[in-house]
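Input (structure):
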């Protein structure tokens, strides 16, 4: 039914337990895949059309899940450069409008991550 301008901030904090499997390895390159489950703490505070009378707030815990696939590259003596695609989703979170529960929403995100894993 159209778009609604929200102005605010969304924070999602995740604690996940993952299972990772090396799929393929050749020289310094290696492909891996994984999945995980856990919990999200979702915290948001928004105004609709910048109107303080229309204040959406949520502070909820949700079941979370993720799947990822990545590539290990350029192994160093104490680390590995990697890149990975990660999909993260969560179950429904309750929204409050002016302190009254009024709707649910589902959170999901897709990310491409570049980094280095340090080893001992």
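Output (sequence):
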């Amino acid at each position: 039914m159209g778009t609604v301008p929200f102005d605010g901030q969304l924070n999602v904090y995740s604690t996940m337990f993952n299972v990772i499997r090396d799929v393929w390895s050749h020289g310094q390159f290696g492909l891996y895949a994984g999945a995980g489950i856990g919990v999200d703490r979702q915290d948001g505070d928004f105004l609709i059309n910048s109107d303080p009378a229309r204040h959406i707030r949520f502070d909820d815990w949700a079941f979370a899940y993720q799947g990822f696939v990545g590539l290990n590259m350029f192994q160093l003596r104490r680390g590995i450069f990697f890149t990975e695609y990660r999909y993260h989703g969560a179950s429904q979170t309750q929204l409050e409008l002016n302190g009254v529960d009024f709707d649910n929403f589902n959170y999901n995100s897709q990310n491409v991550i570049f980094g280095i894993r340090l080893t001992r």
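Notes: The mean pLDDT is 88. The chain has no helices and five strands.
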